[in-house]
Amino acid sequence: MRNLRVNGQRLWLSLMELAQIGATPKGGVCRLAASDLDGEARRLFIRWCEEAGCAVRVDRIGNIFARRHGRDPNLPPVMAGSHLDTQPTGGKFDGAYGVMAGLEVVRSLNDVGYETEAPIEIVAWTNEEGSRFSPAMVGSGVFAGVFELAEGLGRPDNVTGVTLGAELQRIGFAGPEQVGGRPVGAYFEAHIEQGPILEAAGKPIGVVTGAQGQRWYEITVAGQEAHAGPTPMPRRRDALVGAARMIDAVNRIGLAHAPYACATVGFVQVSPNSRNTIPGRVFFTVDFRHPEDAVLTLMDGELRRACESAAAPTGLEVEVKEFWYFPPTPFDLELVTTVRNAAEAQGYPHQDIISGAGHDAVYMARVAPAAMIFVPCAGGISHNEIEDANPEDLTAGCNVLLNAVLAIGTRR
Ligand code: GLV
Ligand code: MN
Ligand code: MN
Q1: CA dihedral 141, 143, 149, 153 (to 10 degrees)
Q2: How far is the CA of 187 from the centre of ligand 2 (A)?
Q3: Which pLDDT value is given to residue 1?
Q4: Does 137 sit in the ligand 1 pocket, CB within 6 Å?
Q5: Taking a C-beta distance cutoff of 8 angstroms, is the pair 290, 257 a contact?
Q6: Helix/strand/coil for 243
Q7: Entry pTM
Q8: Is the pLDDT of residue 244 over 80?
Protein backbone atom coordinates (compact mmCIF):
# COMPACT_ATOMS: atom_id res chain seq x y z
CA MET A 1 0.00 0.00 0.00
CA ARG A 2 3.10 2.20 0.10
CA ASN A 3 2.37 3.43 -3.42
CA LEU A 4 -1.28 4.16 -2.86
CA ARG A 5 -2.19 7.70 -3.89
CA VAL A 6 -5.28 9.79 -3.31
CA ASN A 7 -7.39 11.20 -6.12
CA GLY A 8 -6.36 14.86 -6.06
CA GLN A 9 -9.01 15.91 -8.53
CA ARG A 10 -11.80 14.39 -6.46
CA LEU A 11 -10.41 16.13 -3.36
CA TRP A 12 -10.34 19.47 -5.19
CA LEU A 13 -13.88 19.07 -6.57
CA SER A 14 -15.23 18.23 -3.12
CA LEU A 15 -13.52 21.28 -1.63
CA MET A 16 -14.98 23.49 -4.35
CA GLU A 17 -18.48 22.05 -3.91
CA LEU A 18 -18.32 22.48 -0.14
CA ALA A 19 -17.14 26.08 -0.63
CA GLN A 20 -20.41 26.87 -2.41
CA ILE A 21 -22.11 26.67 0.99
CA GLY A 22 -21.64 30.16 2.40
CA ALA A 23 -19.77 31.38 -0.68
CA THR A 24 -19.02 35.12 -0.58
CA PRO A 25 -18.83 37.48 -3.57
CA LYS A 26 -15.07 37.81 -3.17
CA GLY A 27 -14.53 34.05 -3.53
CA GLY A 28 -14.38 33.19 0.16
CA VAL A 29 -16.71 31.47 2.58
CA CYS A 30 -18.75 32.76 5.52
CA ARG A 31 -20.08 29.72 7.37
CA LEU A 32 -20.23 30.58 11.04
CA ALA A 33 -20.44 27.82 13.63
CA ALA A 34 -23.93 26.38 14.17
CA SER A 35 -25.50 28.67 11.57
CA ASP A 36 -27.93 27.38 8.92
CA LEU A 37 -25.03 27.23 6.48
CA ASP A 38 -22.93 25.21 8.92
CA GLY A 39 -25.88 22.80 9.13
CA GLU A 40 -26.02 22.56 5.35
CA ALA A 41 -22.27 21.85 5.10
CA ARG A 42 -22.57 19.21 7.82
CA ARG A 43 -25.39 17.47 5.97
CA LEU A 44 -23.41 17.40 2.73
CA PHE A 45 -20.39 16.01 4.58
CA ILE A 46 -22.55 13.30 6.18
CA ARG A 47 -24.07 12.37 2.82
CA TRP A 48 -20.61 11.98 1.30
CA CYS A 49 -19.42 9.92 4.26
CA GLU A 50 -22.44 7.62 4.04
CA GLU A 51 -21.92 7.23 0.31
CA ALA A 52 -18.37 6.17 1.19
CA GLY A 53 -19.82 3.46 3.43
CA CYS A 54 -19.11 5.13 6.77
CA ALA A 55 -21.27 4.90 9.87
CA VAL A 56 -21.93 8.43 11.10
CA ARG A 57 -22.47 9.53 14.68
CA VAL A 58 -22.97 12.98 16.16
CA ASP A 59 -22.16 13.75 19.76
CA ARG A 60 -23.87 16.16 22.14
CA ILE A 61 -21.60 19.08 21.24
CA GLY A 62 -22.25 18.43 17.55
CA ASN A 63 -18.93 16.81 16.64
CA ILE A 64 -19.43 14.44 13.68
CA PHE A 65 -17.57 11.12 13.45
CA ALA A 66 -17.75 9.02 10.28
CA ARG A 67 -16.33 5.56 10.85
CA ARG A 68 -14.88 3.20 8.29
CA HIS A 69 -14.61 -0.20 9.85
CA GLY A 70 -11.28 -1.89 10.36
CA ARG A 71 -10.55 -5.60 10.70
CA ASP A 72 -10.24 -5.31 14.45
CA PRO A 73 -13.19 -3.44 15.98
CA ASN A 74 -11.44 -3.48 19.35
CA LEU A 75 -8.63 -1.24 18.19
CA PRO A 76 -9.12 2.47 18.90
CA PRO A 77 -9.78 4.46 15.72
CA VAL A 78 -7.25 6.44 13.77
CA MET A 79 -8.90 9.85 13.34
CA ALA A 80 -8.38 12.42 10.61
CA GLY A 81 -10.27 15.66 10.39
CA SER A 82 -10.63 19.33 11.22
CA HIS A 83 -13.59 21.75 11.13
CA LEU A 84 -16.29 23.01 8.75
CA ASP A 85 -17.01 26.38 10.39
CA THR A 86 -15.25 29.49 9.07
CA GLN A 87 -14.40 33.05 10.00
CA PRO A 88 -16.79 35.79 8.81
CA THR A 89 -14.33 36.57 6.01
CA GLY A 90 -13.07 33.01 5.73
CA GLY A 91 -11.65 31.04 2.84
CA LYS A 92 -12.33 27.74 1.15
CA PHE A 93 -9.55 25.76 2.85
CA ASP A 94 -9.16 26.60 6.55
CA GLY A 95 -10.66 23.53 8.25
CA ALA A 96 -12.52 22.27 5.19
CA TYR A 97 -9.26 20.91 3.80
CA GLY A 98 -8.60 18.68 6.82
CA VAL A 99 -12.13 17.27 6.75
CA MET A 100 -12.15 16.69 2.99
CA ALA A 101 -8.64 15.20 3.16
CA GLY A 102 -9.91 12.69 5.74
CA LEU A 103 -12.81 11.84 3.44
CA GLU A 104 -10.47 11.48 0.46
CA VAL A 105 -8.32 9.02 2.44
CA VAL A 106 -11.40 6.86 3.02
CA ARG A 107 -12.53 7.15 -0.60
CA SER A 108 -9.05 6.17 -1.82
CA LEU A 109 -8.98 3.11 0.43
CA ASN A 110 -12.44 2.19 -0.86
CA ASP A 111 -11.22 2.50 -4.46
CA VAL A 112 -8.77 -0.34 -3.91
CA GLY A 113 -10.84 -2.22 -1.33
CA TYR A 114 -8.13 -1.94 1.27
CA GLU A 115 -8.96 -2.88 4.85
CA THR A 116 -7.02 -1.40 7.73
CA GLU A 117 -6.64 -3.11 11.08
CA ALA A 118 -7.92 -0.16 13.11
CA PRO A 119 -11.12 1.68 12.19
CA ILE A 120 -10.67 5.07 10.60
CA GLU A 121 -12.83 7.99 11.69
CA ILE A 122 -13.22 11.20 9.73
CA VAL A 123 -14.11 13.96 12.16
CA ALA A 124 -15.64 17.42 11.81
CA TRP A 125 -15.28 19.31 15.10
CA THR A 126 -17.80 21.91 16.23
CA ASN A 127 -16.89 25.61 16.50
CA GLU A 128 -13.16 25.48 15.92
CA GLU A 129 -12.99 29.10 14.86
CA GLY A 130 -14.20 30.74 18.04
CA SER A 131 -15.44 33.67 16.03
CA ARG A 132 -19.19 33.49 16.62
CA PHE A 133 -18.87 31.60 19.91
CA SER A 134 -15.63 32.06 21.87
CA PRO A 135 -13.20 30.59 22.63
CA ALA A 136 -11.94 28.50 19.73
CA MET A 137 -11.70 24.68 19.57
CA VAL A 138 -14.83 24.12 21.65
CA GLY A 139 -15.97 20.77 20.17
CA SER A 140 -12.54 19.18 20.48
CA GLY A 141 -12.11 20.87 23.86
CA VAL A 142 -15.21 19.16 25.25
CA PHE A 143 -14.13 15.87 23.64
CA ALA A 144 -10.74 16.18 25.36
CA GLY A 145 -12.27 17.12 28.72
CA VAL A 146 -10.84 20.66 28.67
CA PHE A 147 -14.35 22.13 28.88
CA GLU A 148 -17.40 20.68 30.58
CA LEU A 149 -20.21 19.84 28.14
CA ALA A 150 -22.50 22.42 29.79
CA GLU A 151 -19.79 25.05 29.47
CA GLY A 152 -19.40 24.32 25.75
CA LEU A 153 -23.14 24.29 25.08
CA GLY A 154 -23.55 27.50 27.07
CA ARG A 155 -21.10 29.58 25.04
CA PRO A 156 -22.98 32.72 23.90
CA ASP A 157 -22.92 34.19 20.42
CA ASN A 158 -20.60 37.19 20.75
CA VAL A 159 -23.22 39.55 19.33
CA THR A 160 -26.71 38.13 19.98
CA GLY A 161 -26.07 36.03 23.10
CA VAL A 162 -27.90 32.95 21.75
CA THR A 163 -26.06 29.86 22.98
CA LEU A 164 -24.11 27.32 20.97
CA GLY A 165 -26.32 24.60 22.47
CA ALA A 166 -29.53 26.29 21.32
CA GLU A 167 -28.14 26.83 17.85
CA LEU A 168 -26.97 23.21 17.58
CA GLN A 169 -30.50 22.12 18.53
CA ARG A 170 -31.98 24.45 15.96
CA ILE A 171 -29.83 23.16 13.09
CA GLY A 172 -30.36 19.54 14.16
CA PHE A 173 -26.84 18.82 15.38
CA ALA A 174 -27.21 18.40 19.13
CA GLY A 175 -26.47 14.70 18.76
CA PRO A 176 -27.18 11.83 21.13
CA GLU A 177 -23.66 10.48 21.64
CA GLN A 178 -21.63 11.00 24.78
CA VAL A 179 -18.76 13.42 24.11
CA GLY A 180 -15.30 11.85 24.33
CA GLY A 181 -14.39 9.39 27.05
CA ARG A 182 -13.23 6.82 24.54
CA PRO A 183 -9.75 5.92 23.34
CA VAL A 184 -8.37 7.37 20.12
CA GLY A 185 -5.39 5.56 18.59
CA ALA A 186 -4.05 8.59 16.73
CA TYR A 187 -5.32 11.95 15.52
CA PHE A 188 -4.04 13.50 12.29
CA GLU A 189 -5.07 16.91 10.99
CA ALA A 190 -4.15 18.23 7.56
CA HIS A 191 -4.39 22.02 7.25
CA ILE A 192 -3.16 24.92 5.18
CA GLU A 193 -0.26 26.64 6.93
CA GLN A 194 -2.02 30.04 7.12
CA GLY A 195 1.40 31.70 7.14
CA PRO A 196 4.17 32.37 4.60
CA ILE A 197 6.94 29.93 5.59
CA LEU A 198 6.33 26.91 3.32
CA GLU A 199 5.55 29.00 0.27
CA ALA A 200 8.76 31.02 0.75
CA ALA A 201 10.75 27.81 1.16
CA GLY A 202 9.12 26.20 -1.87
CA LYS A 203 8.17 23.13 0.17
CA PRO A 204 4.79 21.42 -0.25
CA ILE A 205 4.80 19.76 3.18
CA GLY A 206 5.19 21.15 6.68
CA VAL A 207 5.77 18.54 9.37
CA VAL A 208 4.11 20.25 12.30
CA THR A 209 6.02 19.62 15.51
CA GLY A 210 3.67 21.60 17.75
CA ALA A 211 1.58 24.73 18.15
CA GLN A 212 2.41 27.99 19.89
CA GLY A 213 0.60 28.96 23.08
CA GLN A 214 -2.22 31.47 23.26
CA ARG A 215 -3.67 33.82 25.85
CA TRP A 216 -6.96 35.56 25.12
CA TYR A 217 -8.32 38.42 27.20
CA GLU A 218 -11.56 40.34 27.53
CA ILE A 219 -11.03 43.97 28.50
CA THR A 220 -13.71 46.37 29.65
CA VAL A 221 -13.01 50.08 29.94
CA ALA A 222 -15.54 52.16 31.84
CA GLY A 223 -15.71 55.95 31.66
CA GLN A 224 -18.69 58.27 31.56
CA GLU A 225 -21.15 59.09 28.79
CA ALA A 226 -21.43 62.81 28.27
CA HIS A 227 -22.51 65.28 25.62
CA ALA A 228 -20.05 65.74 22.74
CA GLY A 229 -20.65 69.48 22.63
CA PRO A 230 -20.78 71.10 26.06
CA THR A 231 -18.27 68.78 27.78
CA PRO A 232 -14.80 70.41 27.84
CA MET A 233 -11.93 68.15 26.86
CA PRO A 234 -10.21 68.09 30.31
CA ARG A 235 -13.43 66.91 32.00
CA ARG A 236 -13.97 63.89 29.81
CA ARG A 237 -13.71 60.26 30.86
CA ASP A 238 -13.74 58.90 27.33
CA ALA A 239 -13.60 55.10 27.40
CA LEU A 240 -12.80 54.87 23.71
CA VAL A 241 -9.76 57.15 23.94
CA GLY A 242 -8.50 54.97 26.81
CA ALA A 243 -9.20 51.79 24.84
CA ALA A 244 -7.41 53.19 21.79
CA ARG A 245 -4.29 53.77 23.89
CA MET A 246 -4.55 50.22 25.24
CA ILE A 247 -4.97 48.80 21.75
CA ASP A 248 -1.87 50.64 20.62
CA ALA A 249 -0.05 49.16 23.62
CA VAL A 250 -1.16 45.64 22.62
CA ASN A 251 0.42 46.19 19.23
CA ARG A 252 3.62 47.53 20.80
CA ILE A 253 3.84 44.51 23.13
CA GLY A 254 3.66 42.23 20.08
CA LEU A 255 6.39 44.22 18.32
CA ALA A 256 8.58 44.26 21.43
CA HIS A 257 8.72 40.46 21.45
CA ALA A 258 9.57 40.08 17.78
CA PRO A 259 9.97 37.95 15.79
CA TYR A 260 7.68 35.30 17.29
CA ALA A 261 5.09 37.19 19.33
CA CYS A 262 1.66 37.94 17.88
CA ALA A 263 -0.76 40.42 19.48
CA THR A 264 -4.17 41.20 18.03
CA VAL A 265 -7.27 43.16 18.95
CA GLY A 266 -9.99 41.88 16.61
CA PHE A 267 -13.26 42.60 18.41
CA VAL A 268 -14.36 45.96 19.79
CA GLN A 269 -17.74 47.12 21.10
CA VAL A 270 -18.28 50.78 21.88
CA SER A 271 -21.18 51.91 23.98
CA PRO A 272 -23.47 53.68 23.37
CA ASN A 273 -21.88 54.01 19.89
CA SER A 274 -23.57 57.30 19.17
CA ARG A 275 -21.61 59.91 17.26
CA ASN A 276 -22.41 62.83 19.60
CA THR A 277 -22.08 61.01 22.94
CA ILE A 278 -18.68 60.51 24.55
CA PRO A 279 -18.27 56.73 24.81
CA GLY A 280 -18.88 55.47 28.33
CA ARG A 281 -17.90 51.87 27.87
CA VAL A 282 -15.67 49.86 25.56
CA PHE A 283 -15.29 46.12 25.44
CA PHE A 284 -12.48 44.57 23.42
CA THR A 285 -10.60 41.32 23.08
CA VAL A 286 -6.87 40.59 23.00
CA ASP A 287 -5.25 37.55 21.38
CA PHE A 288 -1.60 36.96 22.39
CA ARG A 289 0.46 34.12 20.96
CA HIS A 290 4.02 32.91 21.40
CA PRO A 291 5.85 29.59 21.13
CA GLU A 292 7.35 30.11 24.63
CA ASP A 293 5.17 30.14 27.69
CA ALA A 294 7.58 32.40 29.59
CA VAL A 295 7.20 35.12 26.98
CA LEU A 296 3.40 34.88 27.17
CA THR A 297 3.73 35.48 30.90
CA LEU A 298 5.87 38.57 30.30
CA MET A 299 3.34 39.85 27.77
CA ASP A 300 0.60 39.33 30.35
CA GLY A 301 2.33 41.61 32.85
CA GLU A 302 3.00 44.23 30.21
CA LEU A 303 -0.64 44.21 29.09
CA ARG A 304 -1.95 44.72 32.62
CA ARG A 305 0.48 47.58 33.31
CA ALA A 306 -0.26 49.24 29.97
CA CYS A 307 -4.01 49.11 30.60
CA GLU A 308 -3.65 50.62 34.07
CA SER A 309 -1.44 53.43 32.86
CA ALA A 310 -3.77 54.22 29.95
CA ALA A 311 -6.78 54.32 32.27
CA ALA A 312 -5.48 56.26 35.27
CA PRO A 313 -4.81 59.76 33.85
CA THR A 314 -8.42 60.25 32.73
CA GLY A 315 -10.14 58.50 35.62
CA LEU A 316 -11.18 55.41 33.65
CA GLU A 317 -11.75 52.02 35.19
CA VAL A 318 -10.37 49.00 33.41
CA GLU A 319 -10.97 45.31 33.96
CA VAL A 320 -8.55 42.89 32.30
CA LYS A 321 -9.93 39.37 32.35
CA GLU A 322 -7.96 36.41 31.07
CA PHE A 323 -10.53 34.56 29.01
CA TRP A 324 -8.66 31.58 27.54
CA TYR A 325 -5.24 30.06 27.65
CA PHE A 326 -3.39 27.09 26.34
CA PRO A 327 0.32 26.53 26.62
CA PRO A 328 2.64 25.83 23.69
CA THR A 329 1.80 22.26 22.72
CA PRO A 330 4.28 19.77 21.29
CA PHE A 331 2.79 17.04 19.10
CA ASP A 332 3.45 13.33 19.57
CA LEU A 333 7.01 12.43 18.60
CA GLU A 334 6.08 9.12 17.02
CA LEU A 335 3.26 10.59 14.93
CA VAL A 336 5.39 13.55 13.89
CA THR A 337 8.03 11.08 12.73
CA THR A 338 5.33 9.11 10.93
CA VAL A 339 4.31 12.27 9.04
CA ARG A 340 7.94 13.11 8.19
CA ASN A 341 8.58 9.54 6.99
CA ALA A 342 5.42 9.61 4.88
CA ALA A 343 6.58 12.83 3.18
CA GLU A 344 10.06 11.41 2.72
CA ALA A 345 8.83 8.08 1.31
CA GLN A 346 6.80 9.90 -1.32
CA GLY A 347 9.62 12.25 -2.27
CA TYR A 348 7.90 15.44 -1.13
CA PRO A 349 10.22 18.25 -0.01
CA HIS A 350 9.31 19.02 3.59
CA GLN A 351 10.40 20.93 6.66
CA ASP A 352 9.49 21.01 10.32
CA ILE A 353 7.26 23.87 11.34
CA ILE A 354 5.43 25.20 14.42
CA SER A 355 1.78 26.12 14.01
CA GLY A 356 0.95 29.76 14.55
CA ALA A 357 -2.77 29.01 14.55
CA GLY A 358 -4.78 27.07 17.08
CA HIS A 359 -6.17 23.75 15.89
CA ASP A 360 -8.32 20.94 17.22
CA ALA A 361 -5.12 18.87 17.22
CA VAL A 362 -3.93 20.99 20.16
CA TYR A 363 -6.72 19.69 22.39
CA MET A 364 -6.65 16.21 20.90
CA ALA A 365 -2.96 16.06 21.87
CA ARG A 366 -4.13 15.95 25.50
CA VAL A 367 -6.01 12.67 25.07
CA ALA A 368 -4.34 10.95 22.12
CA PRO A 369 -1.16 10.98 20.09
CA ALA A 370 -1.70 13.85 17.64
CA ALA A 371 0.14 15.41 14.72
CA MET A 372 -0.52 17.75 11.82
CA ILE A 373 0.43 18.13 8.18
CA PHE A 374 0.67 21.62 6.68
CA VAL A 375 0.56 22.62 3.04
CA PRO A 376 1.36 26.12 1.74
CA CYS A 377 -1.27 28.74 1.03
CA ALA A 378 -0.97 31.62 -1.40
CA GLY A 379 0.89 34.58 0.08
CA GLY A 380 0.50 33.01 3.53
CA ILE A 381 -2.96 34.61 3.69
CA SER A 382 -5.80 33.02 5.68
CA HIS A 383 -8.88 34.26 7.57
CA ASN A 384 -9.47 36.17 4.35
CA GLU A 385 -11.77 35.52 1.41
CA ILE A 386 -8.80 35.43 -0.97
CA GLU A 387 -7.28 32.46 0.89
CA ASP A 388 -5.97 30.09 -1.77
CA ALA A 389 -3.94 26.91 -2.10
CA ASN A 390 -2.83 24.98 -5.11
CA PRO A 391 -4.29 21.60 -5.98
CA GLU A 392 -0.89 19.87 -6.23
CA ASP A 393 0.06 20.90 -2.69
CA LEU A 394 -3.35 19.90 -1.32
CA THR A 395 -2.94 16.52 -3.02
CA ALA A 396 0.57 16.14 -1.59
CA GLY A 397 -0.70 16.84 1.93
CA CYS A 398 -3.50 14.34 1.47
CA ASN A 399 -1.07 11.70 0.20
CA VAL A 400 1.03 12.24 3.31
CA LEU A 401 -2.12 11.97 5.42
CA LEU A 402 -3.11 8.72 3.69
CA ASN A 403 0.29 7.17 4.29
CA ALA A 404 0.47 8.37 7.89
CA VAL A 405 -3.03 6.98 8.58
CA LEU A 406 -2.00 3.68 6.99
CA ALA A 407 1.25 3.52 8.96
CA ILE A 408 -0.73 3.61 12.22
CA GLY A 409 -3.94 2.01 10.99
CA THR A 410 -2.32 -1.15 9.69
CA ARG A 411 -0.54 -1.91 12.97
CA ARG A 412 -1.90 -4.91 14.79
C1 GLV B 1 -8.00 29.60 14.66
O2 GLV B 1 -8.40 29.84 13.54
C3 GLV B 1 -7.04 30.44 15.31
O4 GLV B 1 -7.42 31.57 15.67
O5 GLV B 1 -5.88 30.07 15.41
MN1 MN C 1 -8.56 25.93 10.95
MN1 MN D 1 -9.32 29.52 11.29
Answers
A1: 60
A2: 15
A3: 61
A4: no
A5: yes
A6: helix
A7: 0.97
A8: yes
